[in-house]
Design a protein that fits this description.
heterodimer, A: Rossmann fold, Rossmann fold, seven-stranded mixed sheet, five-stranded mixed sheet, 25 strands, B: ABC transporter involved in vitamin B12 uptake, BtuC
Chain lengths: ~650, ~375
């Protein structure tokens, strides 16, 4: 580690840029281990010195490739050591790093690389390399080098742009020998308005847009989210363990892993893959758990399914203590997330019989705070986790404001809201349409090459228009829905589909729900079942099936979902009831353009692809293979007009 | 903050004592074991010394039968080799028997292991060519051959019905068999012998644990599970089976010597087929292919005679009532008969209900709590 031997002669405060923070940590490690990565079942420690050493090597390698200030370097792969060192290494030479989702199909990769004009791409393996190589070279005039991390399958490829990671680092080493001060010279000139990262929005409508995040943006985000009254109390710091498993190219994971994690000295663990999150969680037991509703839904569903097949005694134990958890949860919710003496006593007893073991199995035993973001979540889920003693709440933010808008302070959690504006920022609702407006130094510099879109998003006074409709509940903000998603029924009633969808998705059997009803006479839903869980359910009842599609056509399964829909309907006003539903015949897939890389449903695409199903619901048709009971989700179709006019 | 599921290096993954809880219970167990002479009765302690010899023998049998999957009925033969090597070295020549007269235990105990191991190495080549039932028959033959040789070789054994003096346990000049207070504390008889046996058993246990989690131990298990597959993976079958037989026989030899040293005299007919079966019973009841299982099984079988007495007190009156049986079937049972009955019923019960033995029972209980609050 010759890099560490050179004394930090760079005369800049470490808080000037995220990459300077990492450099500072290498000189004065805040904790023994910066990162952990799992290889062949064993967690390998990576120190702060090794972290910075490789980032600096990447910087040198990029310099040797002639990367200039402001150039774009792309990286596509799962979360891993090389991902974050590419990110920091790029920033170390004042170039900008952009991440691509490992699930992005070839065409989208091509679009984003061309749009950003990336000169270097770091691709994880053959799968990602193929996506680029199959594109026409002429469409990517700027792309000069494709660095691949895994050699398997790529070694014999014949393309002059390819460079292996080992050779890439070797170039860096040679460059460092020749110009040991080259990276520091670039670092010395880092400016606040340097483009640090380019984050492509997932694009539920239209093609993805690159949000330009500057050094100053990130610095403000670290300072604010990491302040004493920021996201977590006390804030993230050395001694905290994080699990990095959400895509790093999304602002949420980048904030946690690179900005708060690396910036504030916490230890970050890379999950093996998104599929092994449950196991990795149980091993790592993070102190801060940042997650998305889908993961919490999966955890909750997993608990119900495994409890259902547990032994008699364990089920009895579960029946007693999950009841207690519900009571604790309800009491805590009523008390803004705080303990009352009664819940404290109940929780202490519950810890012995259930909660401690359950949290250990889930990997939340040491979690001092859990936060759910990126999508709305059903309050029932939060109540459950609160009941077993995991302080979980929602936060709200966007790529365009570095995920910095609102969060629930641990001692003032209001369910169903995304919390209070983070101290130090400005947030208000538009007087006309209640759109949420945000203004602070972490609001992005604009969309890459899209001044038109930038002008639509940031107004003359510097307010960022979020596109979300909100309403105040005291000091807490509640998100109603995306402006463009709000359903106006034929009766003229405004309905927020996401609330109904999330309620549906609390059922372990339901994985996707798309509520439809804009300018229609009643509300309906397309429902995607969870193949594994419904499959287990069917097997336990000796219902035979072959494929996913076959499963969705079993009358018993349709009845099962009808029951779940009825449960949801009971929670809503009559006009908001789902009167008809159909089961999606396939699982939604990014490659088919039905969901984005972050698994967000593309509504317009869905409505186009499954138009036949939707028309069937509104043409008074009954559910297939299920005669009379076909409408048990609600009343008859004509009833809908009643409800609509009643609004 | 403890994160027991997180494995940071291979050493941690393979560690014998992985959690503080395990360390705590192990320490407690060792404390109880080492303090036994202070609170235990003489008779029970004497049984336990035999139990410790059984532990070593059972571990040896479990290595070859449980781990390497080679069914051996010849364990008694190797025990005999060890016992007579020890006796031959330690006792003086008399008019009827020969001996070297070296009472030092550090000489004759390892020698017993080495000679028995060599015997295993000689038998090994036959064993490597045979499988399953055929191997069992061959090793069975070994017991009969051994039995015959011992009956006839009276200059070594002292002759059937007479026997010869057991080896003299002298450790660095201290007679381990002496009695009386030790360092002013009144402890049970043969306390020194017990402590020495305990240390030997612990050392051999650790050696066996290390062996089974090494490359060789994994080779044993690969051969057991499918010899053809193991060979395809590059495991040398002959070499692996030879190692298994040699190590197992060496353990049996050490056990034989330890078993003999607690006795006044040893007799040639002790090392018969019944003894082989007793060891099979130990690993079956304790747990096939588990070192702790072998230990538990050996201790249980060793202490069974002390339980047979009280059980006989309960059972005999019941049989007394059934007077018409008594005359022709020879009731009431004496404790020896009852012991045999208990061995038999224990074996049948375990094979039928819990083929993985006491260890299997324990694993079941442990997994129940490990999976808590779920079932898997």
């Amino acid at each position: 580690m010759s890099a560490i031997a050179t004394p930090p002669t760079l005369d800049r405060p470490v808080t000037d840029a995220p990459v300077l923070r990492l450099r500072g940590h290498a000189a004065d490690p805040p904790s023994p281990v910066a990162l952990r990565e799992k290889h062949l079942g064993v967690w390998q420690d990576i120190t702060w010195e090794e972290y910075w050493d490789q980032a600096e090597l990447v910087g040198h390698a990029l310099l040797s490739l002639g990367i200039e200030v402001g150039d774009r370097v792309a990286v596509q792969g799962e979360n891993r050591f090389e991902w974050v060192t590419t990110d920091f290494g790029t920033q170390a030479i004042r170039a900008a790093c952009m991440g691509l989702y490992p699930t992005n199909p070839s065409a989208e990769v091509g679009y984003m690389l061309a749009d950003a004009g990336a000169r270097v791409l770091v691709a994880e393996d053959q799968e990602q390399v193929d996506k680029v190589l199959e594109l026409d070279r002429g469409d990517l005039p700027d792309l000069e080098v494709v660095v691949y991390l895994e050699e398997r399958g790529v070694r014999d490829y014949d393309d002059d742009r390819l460079l292996s990671w080992v050779d890439f680092l070797e170039r860096g080493r040679a460059h460092r020998e020749a110009h040991p001060r080259a990276v520091d010279e670039r670092l010395a000139d880092i400016a606040d308005d340097d483009l640090a990262v380019l984050i492509y929005t997932s694009g539920t409508t239209g093609p993805p847009k690159g949000a330009m995040i500057t050094v100053a943006n990130i610095n403000f985000a670290i300072a604010t989210a990491g302040s004493a009254d920021g996201f977590f109390q006390p804030p993230i710091g050395p001694g905290d363990w994080l699990l990095s498993y959400l895509p790093l190219c999304h602002v949420y994971e980048r904030l946690l892993t690179s900005w708060l994690g690396a910036g504030l000295g916490a230890t970050v663990h890379f999950a093996e893959s998104i599929d092994t999150v449950t196991r990795d969680l149980a091993e790592v037991q993070p102190t801060i758990f940042a997650t998305v509703p889908r993961i919490l839904e999966k955890m909750h569903a997993g608990v119900s399914v495994r409890m259902a097949s547990a032994s008699r005694l364990k089920r009895a134990n579960w029946a007693v203590w999950s009841g207690v958890a519900t009571r604790i949860g309800a009491a805590k919710v009523a008390n803004n997330g705080n303990h009352t003496p009664a819940t404290r006593a109940l929780e202490a007893a519950g810890e012995v019989f259930l909660f401690r073991a359950l949290k250990e199995r889930l990997g939340l035993q040491h979690a001092r705070a859990a936060v759910s973001g990126a999508a709305p979540i059903a309050p029932e889920l939060l109540e459950f986790f609160m009941g077993i003693g995991v302080p979980v709440s929602e936060a709200y933010g966007q790529t365009e404001n570095c995920a910095l808008a609102t969060s629930n302070p641990l001692d003032d959690i209001r369910l169903g809201t995304v919390g209070r504006p983070v101290p130090g920022i400005e947030l208000k609702l538009d007087e006309d349409n209640n759109e949420i407006l945000v203004r602070h130094p972490a609001v992005f510099a604009g969309y890459w090459n899209r001044p038109d879109a930038t002008a639509e998003t940031i107004d003359a006074d510097g307010w960022l228009h979020s596109g979300d409709v909100g309403e105040w509940e005291g000091q807490h903000l509640r998100i109603v829905d995306r402006i463009k998603d709000i359903i106006i029924t034929a009766g003229g009633k405004n309905i927020s589909p996401s609330e109904i969808e999330n309620s549906l998705k609390t059922s372990p059997f339901i994985k996707e729900a798309i509520v439809i009803g804009d300018r229609r006479k009643f509300i309906s839903a397309l429902i995607g079942i969870d193949g594994d869980i419904v499959g287990n359910w069917a097997q336990a009842r000796k219902i035979t099936y072959t494929t996913y599609r076959d499963l969705t056509e079993r009358p018993e399964v349709v009845d099962l979902v009808a029951g779940e829909v009825a449960t949801t309907n009971a929670k809503f006003a009559r006009v908001e009831e789902v009167k008809q539903f159909r089961l999606l015949p396939k699982e939604l897939d990014e490659d088919d353009g039905e969901v984005t890389a972050t698994q967000k449903v593309k509504r317009t695409a869905i409505e186009r692809i499954f138009a036949a199903l939707i028309d069937d619901m509104y043409s008074g048709g009954r559910r297939p293979a299920h005669g009379g009971a076909g409408t048990d989700a609600g009343s008859d179709a004509d009833d809908g007009s009643d409800a609509g006019s009643g609004a | 903050m403890a994160r027991p599921r997180m494995i940071g290096d291979h050493g941690q993954a393979m560690a014998l004592v992985r959690t503080p809880t395990k360390a705590f219970w192990l320490t407690a167990l060792l404390l109880v074991a080492f303090s036994a002479p202070i609170w235990m009765s003489n008779g029970l302690l004497f049984l336990l010394i035999a139990g410790l010899a059984y532990v070593v023998g059972a571990i040896g049998l479990n290595l070859v039968t449980g781990f390497a999957g080679q069914l051996s009925l010849g364990h008694a033969f190797f025990l005999a080799v060890g016992a007579y090597t020890a006796t031959f070295i330690s006792s003086e020549s008399t008019g009827t028997t020969v001996g070297l007269g070296i009472p030092e235990i550090l000489v004759w105990l390892p020698a017993a292991g080495i000679v028995a191991g060599l015997a295993g190495l000689l038998v090994g080549p036959i064993a490597t060519r045979l499988k399953g039932l055929y191997l069992a028959i061959v090793t069975l033959g070994l017991v009969f051959v051994g039995d015959h040789v011992l009956r006839e070789w009276s200059s070594l054994t002292g002759g059937v019905g007479f026997g010869r003096a057991a080896p003299d346990p002298t450790l660095l000049g201290i007679d381990l068999a002496r009695t009386g207070p030790i360092l002013g504390i009144e402890v049970a008889r043969s306390a020194l012998l017990y402590w020495f046996s305990l240390v030997v058993a612990i050392v051999l246990t650790i050696l066996a644990l290390n062996l089974v989690r090494s490359r060789i131990g994994r080779a044993f298990q690969a051969v057991r599970d499918r010899d053809v597959a193991a060979e395809v993976m590059g495991i040398d079958l002959t070499r692996t089976k030879l190692i298994a037989f040699t190590v197992s026989s060496a353990y049996a030899g050490l056990a034989g010597a330890m078993f003999a040293m607690r006795l006044e005299t040893i007799e040639a007919t002790q090392f018969n087929l019944l003894l082989s079966f007793l060891f099979i019973a130990m690993i079956l009841v304790g747990g096939i292919s588990s070192i702790p299982g072998a230990i538990v099984g050996a201790l249980l079988i060793a202490t069974l005679p002390s339980m047979a007495g009280p059980i006989s007190d309960v059972v005999t009156p019941i049989f007394d009532v059934l007077a018409f049986w008594r005359g022709d079937a020879g009731f009431p049972l004496d404790t020896f008969q009852l012991e045999q009955l208990l061995y038999g019923s224990l074996l049948i019960t375990f094979v039928l209900l819990e083929p993985r033995g006491l260890m299997g029972l324990w694993l079941r209980i442990r997994n129940y709590w490990r999976a808590f609050p779920f079932s898997y």
